[in-house]
Structure formats: C-alpha cells, structure tokens
Amino acid sequence: MEEAEADKGWGADAQEIHQRRKWAEESGGSETVDRQHAQGRLTVRERIAGLVDAGSFQEIGKLAGDGTYRDGHVTKVTPAPYVMGLANIDGRPVAVGGEDFTVRGGTSWGGDRRKGGQGGFVEDLAHQYRIPLVNLIDGAGGTVTSARRRGHTVFPGVDGFERSVQLLGSVPVVSAVMGTAAGGPAGRAILSHWSVMVRNTSQIFAAGPPVVERSLGQRVTKEELGGSRMAVDVAGTVDNVAESEEDCFRMIRRFLGYMPRNVWELPPVTPCDDPVERREEALLEIVPRNRRKPYSMKKLVELVVDRGSGFEIAPTFGRAVITCLARMHGKVVGVIANNPMVYGGAMDVKAARKQIHFIDLCDCFHIPLIFLVDVPGFMVGMQAEAAATLREGMRAVHAGLQATVPIFTVVIRKCYGMAGMGTTDKNGLDLKLAWPSAEWGSLPVEGGVAAAFRREIQNAADPAQRQQEIEAELRELASPFLTAEAFGVEDVIDPRETRPILCRFIDAAQGRLTTDVGVKLKAGVRP
Known about the structure:
The protein is of the alpha/beta class. It folds into three domains: 42-61 and 81-258, 2-enoyl-CoA Hydratase, Chain A, domain 1 (Alpha-Beta Complex), CATH 3.90.226; 281-438 and 489-520, 2-enoyl-CoA Hydratase, Chain A, domain 1 (Alpha-Beta Complex), CATH 3.90.226; 443-478, no CATH class. Strands 12, 13, 14, 15, 16, 17, 18 and 19 form an eight-stranded mixed beta sheet that branches. Strands 1-4-5-6-7-9-11 form a seven-stranded mixed beta sheet, sandwiched between helices. It has a two-stranded antiparallel sheet with strand order 2-3. β2 (65-70) and β3 (73-79) form a beta hairpin. α18 packs across α20 (463-477). The longest helix is centred in the last third of the chain and has 16 residues, at 349-364. The two termini are 54 Å apart.
C-alpha cells in the first residue's frame, strides 16, 4: 500500500503549491482589494506589473503567510503583507518589493525571516547581487498590537535600518510612496537616493493624525499633514510628485535609466543623435544686458544638454537652484543651475539642502557635475539667519569639496562669495568657463561699495552720485576679460559654444571615471 502511494508521484503536492499561490494572489480578499481600487490605488502586484518589464517578475516568498488547517490539511493561507522578488526594468535586473495594504494594512509580519519593509530578503537581494532596489511603500510599519502578540514590547532597532544604510553606498535605491506611509516605512522612504509620491493618494509622516491629535491636540487630515504639498513642496521630504501611479512608474523607470547598476559600474551611455557641435543662436540673447532682469535658466539648460534628456529632481522644492539629470553626447551628467527667477538665484536653506543631496547622488554613482552659475551669494536677512542658511550653505560648499567626480563650471552671470566658491572643482582640474555676461567677486559691487566706501560716500557732496561713480569704476574692473587675461578664469566663451566645449571635456573625462571605479576595486571595496 505504501509503495502504491509512493508511485503516485508529487502531483497532489504540486497542486497544493498552485493553490497556495492562488490564495496569495487574492491578497486580503475581494472586499479589501475593491476598497484599495476605490481609493485610486493599485494593489502591490498590479504596481509591480505596471513598473517592470512584462513577464519579468520572479516573486520570492509567495507562500509565506498564516495558514489555517483542518484535519492536517490546509484550508486557507492569509498571505504575508509584503510582496517582493527579482525583475527587470528596461532589461536590467532590479530587486523590487512593497507592502500589500489589503492585508492588515501592510503592517509588519512575524515570520522566521522578513521579506522586506525594513531590512529583509529584498534588501539582501539588492545587496548581494549589487542591483538597484525599488521600494513601493504602502504601509504603516509596526503596530501596538504586536506587544499583545509577543507578550512584551521590543526595543527600537530590533528590525533596524542597517542594511538600508549600507545599500546607499552601493546600489541605486528608489522609494515610491504609493499610499500612507508612517513609522518605519516612512523612514525607509527617506533612506533612498531618489523618492517620489503620488498626488492626492499618498501621504508620508513620522506619525499620523491620531498620534498628532493625542500628543499635540492638533486636528489635521492625512493630506494636510503629509500630502505632496507638504512633503514635496514645503518640506522636501520626498523629491518628486507623480500625477498618477502610472506616471510614478514612468518616472521610476526614467530615473533608473541614468543610474549604473551599482557603484562599481559607470552610468549607461545611450546613442545620441543630437550633434555635439550644435550651437544654439538663442543662447546669445537669453541673458538680458540688464543685470537685474531675470531669465529662464531652465530654458538655458534645455538648449545645452542632449535634446529631451533632462529629468529634474525636486523641481518644486528649493527652487532657487535647479538640479537635474541629463545627458551630454549620450553620457549621463548632473546639472546644478542657479535660478534667477527665485531670490535672484541666491542660495537659501532649502536650495542648499537640495544641492547637497544632488551632489552626493552624483558623486556616489560617478556622474560628472556641471554648474551653470548665476548666484549672488547666500540668502541674507533676518529670516535667512534664523533658518541657519550660513550653516546649510557651507554644508553645500563642503559637499562640493568632498565630491570626487569631474566638475565643470560655467559662469552665466553672477558668481559671488562662498556660494560661488561652492560651484568650483578646487580638488580637481578646476575648469571654469565664463560667458561675456559673467561677473564675480567676494560680493556684488552694489552691496560691497555701500559697506567698503561708507565714509567716503557719506562725506561726498552728493552721496548718491558718488556711490554710483564708485560702482561704475569697480564694475569696469569686474570684466571677465580682465580676469581671463590673468588666466584667473580658464576661458571666456561665446555662449553658443557651451554645448560643444562641455561635450568635449565630458567625453575626455570618461577615462578618469573608469579609473575611479578601478581604484574602488583595488582598494578592497569589491562588489
């Protein structure tokens, strides 16, 4: 009899595997799935399918969950509230995972090994295989009910961020806030190289409205507390906002298109049909001769980089500086450009924070930096001092000096003070190009004259006229041609030459970037 049973093979067991997979695919059941859809949100498996290459998702841990048994036979399995695995995006492997909000709100689950959410297999997969990690975040993390289940409370850090932090130095990490993220998942969203959320349907905060009301007596909605207006525009907690989940997937794919798989590789080079020698006539007139009149720095960037290649990071936060990934002759570059339409391009505390994060991103993944400079200095005044602009501004200078990638400086108009200093490559070639509209110094002539010649101006018969005379005299000395004669700036160029010259130098710098990757390997920092 036993021998006859053995001859039946494993068909029944295989059938059970497929049944268990089917239960997993039902997530939290039709009612909770319908509720998720009614809120304008996809389920986690629908999100993964919409993000990755068709048919490429290899799910791992699909059978994990809590089983119900009768007479020794399984009758149902409630799946673990996390879905993850291996997939491809544009043909390149990634580790991808996210909370299943339809199962207990995506809260943590106590198996023998975490699937993901804070540490877990999905982060180990990205770490061990040196591939990008995409977090699709839709959960609140821990819950006080876990204390009742365990019989005791756990000390913070039992499930910590050690691997999350480690990944930031090795592979690209993307976090997409797809629903309401609080606690651990919200913290993990911050531990990323780039983050995005969905307008009106996702929120992020340290703790939600019930905790805020109980601790502070403030009644706020989820959207007021952590929607995109707060998290992206005001606080800069998250970098970008998408208009829909499908738009979010498109943005993730595009961001990863600029990234290498890990820090031991260079960013991908794409075919370029935009001529290196393209000279845009519009660049001759884009900067007004009136020094006080603003212009579109975003348009200037578009005219210089490969057509259609720009991807702006944090466009609505710290708007005094523009940060974007782009390509020059098919090679990835990071562009940092001051925005004269906001504070005249002066660096405020938000712009400084934004610049620091972007420099760190580019330096980590061997992406050369191009500074398009029009900065009159750090923001000044009572509010600026109260916000510690000087401290954050000097952190931006520090980040620039710590960067190891090639840096190219093009002074479009103003380049003053310590903020101007932070746009140069003092530890590298320090190539500085200037347009004929460029000017520089310790501080702008207007403010500097009022301070340095205060007594002479006050004692003049016509103080206003005397101040104008001194300003005119010093402005003549500020001609970029005089500095070029002393080789204090490497070249003054026709604005139309900006793209051809930068492309030449970026092409030439590829050997340096390749060497930097080799140095990491030889130093023992191995993949």
